[in-house]
Amino acid sequence: MYTKTGRTTIKKVASVAGVSTQTVSRVINNRPDVSSKTRKRIQDVIEELGYQPSALARSLIHQRSYTLGVVTAGLKYIGPSCTLNGITAAAEEAGYALILKELPRFDATNNEPIFQELVSHHVDGIIWAVQEVRGNRSWVNQLALDSDIPIVYLTMEPRENISVVLINNYMGGCMAMSHLLDQGYRHIGHISGPLDWWEARQRMKAWKDALEEAGIGFHDHSWVEGNWSSASGARAAEKLFEQYTDMDSILVANDQMALGAIQIVHQKGLQIPQDIGIVGFDNIPESAFYWPALTTVNHDQYNLGRVAVQETIKIIESVRQGLTPISLKSITLEPTLVVRDSSLRLKA
Amino acid sequence: MYTKTGRTTIKKVASVAGVSTQTVSRVINNRPDVSSKTRKRIQDVIEELGYQPSALARSLIHQRSYTLGVVTAGLKYIGPSCTLNGITAAAEEAGYALILKELPRFDATNNEPIFQELVSHHVDGIIWAVQEVRGNRSWVNQLALDSDIPIVYLTMEPRENISVVLINNYMGGCMAMSHLLDQGYRHIGHISGPLDWWEARQRMKAWKDALEEAGIGFHDHSWVEGNWSSASGARAAEKLFEQYTDMDSILVANDQMALGAIQIVHQKGLQIPQDIGIVGFDNIPESAFYWPALTTVNHDQYNLGRVAVQETIKIIESVRQGLTPISLKSITLEPTLVVRDSSLRLKA
DNA sequence: CTGAAAGCGCTAACAC
DNA sequence: GTGTTAGCGCTTTCAG
Q1: Residue B348: CA atoms inside 13 Å, Cβ hemisphere, count?
Q2: What is the spatial distance between Cα B254 and Cα B92, in angstroms, rounded to a whole number?
């Protein structure tokens, strides 16, 4: 098994076909200037030998690898992996290969080695598909700005001269809040994500702002910080029921925590949505099958990945063509609200 | 932004430091035979220029890339992405880079282009992290056997002369069944995964065999095929209640479908686990927060990925060292049962 | 200790 | 139409 035969090279093909490597090169690149007879012969040899041109050698010559570096974190969670799903699909479509790196932690801050390794592999562009958490964007200004390889960042506070693709978390939170208010809920608690996450802060801000705007206002006892997990959602809900005795609904910053919260509501013998309305965030596939089915904010993480790839390639192309320095911009994707039973107190 | 400056090469470093490229090469490879003075100077220049050696050029020379190809499918599902999580971690640890390909469908059968592309990138080994579905392993015997690059397959029926890492799905199903029988359930229904999946068949076989062994036997009306989704689990449960009127429990082939089934049980006003016991499979993090908490079969998909990487590298190494032809073997990981409320009828 | 030459697999540019 | 030369960025011999 697995004898060390080594690679079939263009040289080998050339010698077997009795031509120069050049001619073989012309054939594999579909150049016109080869006699159809020679071409046929070479193609046969290629087939026979199972020859596959080396992408590495080509990358060296062309100064272009058609390879993108993808940096992610937390693949064991469904959000990052959906985004990666979109990235692989779009990259495939565009004919780019992907080199994947996963950070050991979301808030990893020593990113230069990762970056260097991607450079070492001659990637044409980088997609930084890690959420903004704590200080994990501090390096952006230093290192990335003077890099000459295009980088597109995902899910962070937009900045000048940086290409960012993000989902409008704030808007999502606002939609959820309007809905709860529409349903007549007035004592709306909040289970936030960990507040060193930019996304968690955005979602929470929507909750606050909506309460202010509705003339209700909020108190510190009416929210609790979670860590995205169902377990933390359950704990947070328990605490919330203690602190906020006349609470009639909860905006939960993701669906997993919402599941934990729902479990607590059941344990207390309260009815959803009559006694307590629940709205989640993310629209994970399971949320439609919670008991009761969860109202939640839907956002398309798959598409986030797709758009990021497309944007990256667009920048690569324009740099290659030496076009006028591209002005880097942010792209914001808008979420939608999915209304289900968990918040539908006023039946139509 | 992004001026086309081009790469800093070893040549550049050499000329700035006033030495030959050779000497620079010695420094970046930590060779001893360089005067500490020259070394220092070169290191400074490297630092200053932000020089990063080209992994591509090195791969060409060494006939070795320290790169693994990973082929996956269904990243939007939590299983495959957990496995990928384990793969990235183990690869990082071992100093290997990863080239990622995702198949458009689980049962994609035209895999030669994928394979060829990985070859083209000089990967040292391949991890085929796609579950065995329908005919998607038919190519294995032809193409892969005479490839001289090591391939490790995940989650498939073991075969001779092929390296496979898998989880013992059958055993997992058996454990779940013993537990249900221990709890006094006798009319155990089954919601299977799609039966063109090898894993689904294994889990179902455990259900059948256990019923036979217990002297209960099974009928065609006591199981329904799902497609892994919660929606299909709900539909299957409804059907099952119609077909199998004295059913007292269900072995569900994954946790998502179990969630759907639970929703139906609630809708019928039945009690879990008193009227109906439910056992799932996979132990997704949310399952502990279902209502009631789900008894399920736990298996470590993260570890599956880790082991696959380690095994791949082991094979690569022994081929390189020209050791006696390695005998390829399967590695089976054993699952565990996590007992929670959904099946605990006999309180201790 | 350091450098020059050759070559990994391939292609651009130029011959013929 | 086809072959030759040079070189992408690097390392391995082998000289000095």
Answers
A1: 3
A2: 30
Please indicate, yes or no, whether the overall pTM of this predicted structure exceeds 0.90: yes
Distant-in-sequence, close-in-space partners of B79: CB < 8 Å, separation ≥ 6: B282, B301
Q: Answer left, alpha or beta for residue B95, where phi above 0 means left and psi between -120 and 50 means alpha.
A: left
- A92: which chain B residues are within 8 Å (Cβ-Cβ)? 101-102, 104
Structure confidence at residue B145 as a pLDDT band (50, 70, 90): low
* Chain A CA closest to residue B324: A1
Residue A55 identity: A
Cα–Cα distance list, A100 to A70, A75, A324 (Å): 5, 11, 30
Using DSSP's 3-state secondary structure scheme, residue A197 falls into: strand
For residue A232, what is the nearest residue in chain B, using CA coordinates?
A: B289
d(Cα B125, Cα B312) in Å, to the nearest integer?
Answer: 6
Contact A97 B102 (CB under 8 A): no
Å between A100 CA and nearest CA of chain B = 6
Alpha carbon distance B156, B131 (integer Å): 6
Q: Which amino acid is at B165?
A: V
Strand partners, B298: B282, B336
CB-based contacts of B213, cutoff 8 Å, min separation 6: none
Spell out which residues of chain B touch residue A325, defining contact as CB-CB under 8 Å.
1-3
Write the pLDDT tens digit of every residue in A142-156.
Answer: 765 678 899 999 999
Query: How far apart, in whole angstroms, are the C-alpha atoms of residue B253 and residue B207?
Result: 10
Phi and psi at A204, nearest 5°, equal -70, -40
* Nearest-angstrom CA–CA distance, A114 and A116: 5
Nearest to A286 among B104, B150, B286 (CB): B286
With a CB cutoff of 8 Å and minimum separation 6, the contacts of B158 are B164, B166, B330, B332
> Residue B217: CB partners within 8 Å, gap ≥ 6?
B211
What is the Rg, in whole angstroms, of the alpha carbon atoms belonging to chain A?
26
What's the CA gap between B348 and B338, in Å, rounded?
16
Looking at this protein, which amino acid is placed at residue B326?
A: I
Subunit contact A319:B2, Cβ cutoff 8 A: yes
Run of H or E including A67: strand A67-73
Name the residue among A218, A291, A225 with its Cα closest to residue A278: A291
Helical spans, DSSP H, in chain A: 10-17, 21-28, 36-49, 55-62, 78-94, 112-120, 138-139, 169-182, 198-213, 230-243, 255-267, 301-320
pLDDT in tens, A97-140: 999 999 999 999 989 999 999 999 999 999 999 999 999 999 88
- Residue nearest the C1' of D5 (CA based): A22
Outline where DSSP puts E strands in B51-167: 67-73, 97-103, 125-128, 151-154, 163-167
Are the Cβ atoms of B76 and A78 closer than 8 angstroms? Answer: yes
HSE, side-chain direction, 13 A CA sphere, residue B229: 10
